[in-house]
Amino acid sequence: MLAVKTVAQQEPVAPAHLIIRDMDYSDADYVALVEVSNACYPEYPGTIDEWKHEDAHRPAHLKYRRWLAEVDGTVVAYGNYDQFEAMYNPRLFHISVGVHPTWQRRGIGAAFYTTIVEALNEFDPLRIRARAREDYQASLRFLQQRGFVEDLREWESRLEVAAFDPTPYQGHEARVVASGIRIATLAELIATDPDHRQKLYELDVDLTNDVPHPEPTTGFSYETFEHFYFKGPNLMPEGVFVALDGERYAGLSALWKSQGDPRELYTGLTGVRREYRRRGIALALKLRAIEFARQLDVAVIKTWNESNNRPMLSINEALGFVKQPAWVSFVKTL
Question: Which InterPro entries match (predicted)?
């Protein structure tokens, strides 16, 4: 999760014994990294397996570097710059800084930011991007004080699964099926369709291109998709629902595990190809996903939607998803 979560109100001086060093990717460093990250973002707990998988499968052409900050041998913060394959520009970078709550307001975030920016100078960056949640007021000030400007918002929405009432939607999927669409799980497709990976990749690319992005989309390779989709630690083939028109993959709604909290699921992507929209397919996919979560006794489903994506926001609101504070995307043009 790329976000700046630190406090910098009066730019306090960093501790004299602060050391900012490159992460060595040892088990000990991963343990320290996850501890700090989870302390900063307790609502989005991550695991060592998840961090390791992302680091191990980053495409080689993407520039990346991560540091840890120590005070007297204790890791108190982390920071990195990165590039995203789906929004790739060789001179565009995304930065993240996380300072353990007990060490905030001590100038560590400011020191980390300086370290990252100085390291980026050799690449002559055009723009730097960062994210923060709108209720992280100190983080917003931190970015704004350094010349970052907001350019996109994503609503986070959450559904309390036990409170969901399926009664108003009885017969909806049957009507979609009657129109010629059937819904299958990825588990079923793995067993019956030898081309399921390529078809799902093409569907994912098509849908992702229609998702609002703060930068021009550049796509992602099949290898990247396979690593993160099929070889990642959070895939649940029974929780990925695909709408089929004959043999064609027309729509998708995918639920992913939250290793940090087994009673939560994340919605990765829900969408329908343009020519299949306004037929109730996305709603049918979401209903199947919610029913799957109910069977697992999951407490909460989390999802994210760009603030102007009215069709998907309307579906989520009708289903009972409740908006949380938005995640704000910032950019600094150099």
Answer: Acyl_CoA_acyltransferase, Bact_Acetyltransf, GNAT_dom
Counts for the chain of helices (H) and strands (E), in that order: 10, 14
CB-based contact 296:262 (threshold 8 Å): no
Question: What is the chain's pLDDT, residue by residue, as a tens digit (334 residues)?
Answer: 334 444 334 566 667 689 999 999 999 999 999 999 999 999 999 999 999 999 999 999 999 999 999 999 999 999 999 999 999 999 999 999 999 999 999 999 999 999 999 999 999 999 999 999 999 999 999 999 999 999 999 999 999 999 999 999 999 999 999 999 999 999 999 999 999 999 999 999 999 988 888 999 999 999 999 999 999 999 999 999 999 999 999 999 999 999 999 999 999 999 999 999 999 999 999 999 999 999 999 999 999 998 878 889 999 999 999 999 999 999 999 9
Cα distances (Å, whole numbers) of residue 275 to 185, 269, 271 = 22, 18, 12
The full set of domains in the chain, from first to last, is 4-147 (3.40.630.30), 156-325 (3.40.630.30)
Close Cβ partners of 87 (under 8 Å, ≥ 6 residues apart): 213, 214, 215, 216, 217, 218
Q: Which two tokens stand for residue 66?
A: 């991560």
Q: Which residues, 6 or more positions from 186, have their beta carbon under 8 angstroms from its beta carbon?
A: 196, 200, 237, 238, 240, 241, 242, 254
What 3-state class would DSSP assign to 120?
A: helix
**Helix 310-319 vs helix 281-295: crossing angle, to nearest 10:** 40
Q: Kindly give, in sequence order, each residue whose CB lies less than 8 Å from that of residue 8, ignoring residues fewer than 6 positions away.
A: 107, 109, 110, 138, 141, 142, 145
